[in-house]
Amino acid sequence: MLLNTYEPWKFAFSKENEDIKENSFGIIGVPFDSTTSYHSGARLGPIVVREASFGFEKYNTTFNKDLTASFYDFGDVNVVPGNCEKTCSIIEDTVNELYELNLKPLIIGGEHSATIGAVRALCEKYEKLTVVHLDAHRDLAFDFVGEKYSHATVMRRVHEMGVNLVQIGIRSSSQDEEDYVKSTYDIQTFKNKDAHKHMDAIEYYLANIDGPIYISIDMDVIDPSIAPSVGNPTPGGLYISEIETIIQALARKNIVGLDVVETACDRLGDTTAVVAAKIIYDFLTLVD
């Protein structure tokens, strides 16, 4: 048990938190959605995603491989409702604790702001981090309704930490965000139509990333016909097969952390929760 966590549920096939195998993944949930601006409910994401994970067999037929990786579920972070900045600090401390156990973070959200705390901790440990960000939105606003810590500003805060940023699936942004992207040299964009029509180019780019990689997946990157229960659903999204291709392209790289965020539903068995659990299940199958 980590200092700032409690255990409401565990992801399927997770090991007991004893005799930890180094360089494995430690799961934490972040039940927080205090900056949500449209559809609330992401605070329940960690519970419903974990529950949905028990619908999968240990043999992954997509990749013809057993899930044999060792990973450990430490429960949910004790968030501070209404205080995004403080919650991000707690996440940072928790990721540091995982690192001391020689574990890499796998975060189930919860709103997207959770990425700030995780990346801040990892930037102190890795000289040059690349963040691969799958999302319908850029999340590069300097502030949102006066707040610098928000689901809409998360990638601006992350980019300010000096990371290389790769954004995939983008189909909604502001002019200010587009101007910010043009003003810098280390943000690479693949919009939703690039994923639909030029996945080979995305695979090639990802295969050539050097150094440590953190993957951040906002569930609204997926088309809302498949995953409707998200904070900000946006038509024209990616399909499950495209997500699988991206995960497969990244799985053999130096992945130092992953988050799957913005599952916003309050019903067990919700399709969005099932898809989120499948993404995590596929990732854990492939990284071993």
Characterization of this structure:
The protein is α/β, with parallel strands linked by helices and 288 residues long. It is 32% helix and 20% strand. The chain has nine helices and eleven strands. The protein has helices at 45-52, 84-100, 114-123, 154-159, 175-182, 192-197, 199-207, 240-250, 271-287; strands at residues 5-6, 24-30, 59-60, 65-66, 71-77, 103-109, 130-134, 164-170, 187-191, 213-218, 255-261. The strands form two sheets. The protein has a nine-stranded mixed beta sheet, sandwiched between helices. The longest helix has 17 residues, at 84-100. The two termini are 24 Å apart.
List keywords for this structure.
288 residues; two-stranded antiparallel ribbon
Quick overview of this protein structure:
The chain has about 290 residues and is α/β, with parallel strands linked by helices. It is built from 9 helices and 11 strands.
User: Count of helices?
Assistant: 9
Proportion in β-strands: 15-25%
Average per-residue pLDDT, rounded, comes to 94
Distance between the ends: 24 Å
Largest sheet: 9 strands, mixed
Total strand segments: 11
Low-confidence stretches: none
What is the 3D form?
globular
List the helices and strands and how they pair.
Elements: E1 5-6, E2 24-30, H1 45-52, E3 59-60, E4 65-66, E5 71-77, H2 84-100, E6 103-109, H3 114-123, E7 130-134, H4 154-159, E8 164-170, H5 175-182, E9 187-191, H6 192-197, H7 199-207, E10 213-218, H8 240-250, E11 255-261, H9 271-287
Parallel strand pairs: 2-5, 2-6, 6-11, 7-8, 7-10, 8-9, 10-11
Antiparallel strand pairs: 1-5, 3-4
Helix pairs in contact: 1-9, 2-3, 7-8, 8-9
